[in-house]
Amino acid sequence: LAKTTQPISMDSYEGQEVNITCSHNNIATNDYITWYQQFPSQGPRFIIQGYKTKVTNEVASLFIPADRKSSTLSLPRVSLSDTAVYYCLVGDPFYNQGGKLIFGQGTELSVKP
Amino acid sequence: NAGVTQTPKFRVLKTGQSMTLLCAQDMNHEYMYWYRQDPGMGLRLIHYSVGEGTTAKGEVPDGYNVSRLKKQNFLLGLESAAPSQTSVYFCASTPSGGTDTQYFGPGTRLTVL
Question: What average pLDDT is seen over chain A?
């Protein structure tokens, strides 16, 4: 499973766009990039997943450059309720290894008024 | 549809006591997982199951046992609790190993004195 590196913490203000970058230099051909969000005292929640280029859903966008050695989670116009820890994970969801996920330390995003 | 539920929500044990944490899911998911999360750290996989009657070790299995007698339930047991097992425990499930979308429970906060 590829190792990921992301900033430990970030600060932002309400209404701003937040971009969290994750580095995964050893990403394998079959690996996908997945982001989870965790609020205090709750379990993580799936946000978005992608393989290459750009993926967008109602919550966020995920940008993946051609070499796939990094990815950027973009949260548009954040609010106080977006304060959470964001985890970047890299793995092959179709490889029969029990669907195991490796969570790093994550990025603690603090949104201020 | 309750999703993933965990029982109990909080528990305080004395060193050497035993207990069982219950995870239940009503989504007919095949795969289930137990994680622990310690302050300032990401989640670490303890044990997992790829189907009823099966279990496998994760990253930090020592001191824990699990059972999956019914598809909807995944039990985590501590035979002789130690202070190092003070943590927040999360259960998760997923339809199969072919996805990185895991659904997490609300967590159990365990303190071992």
Answer: 89
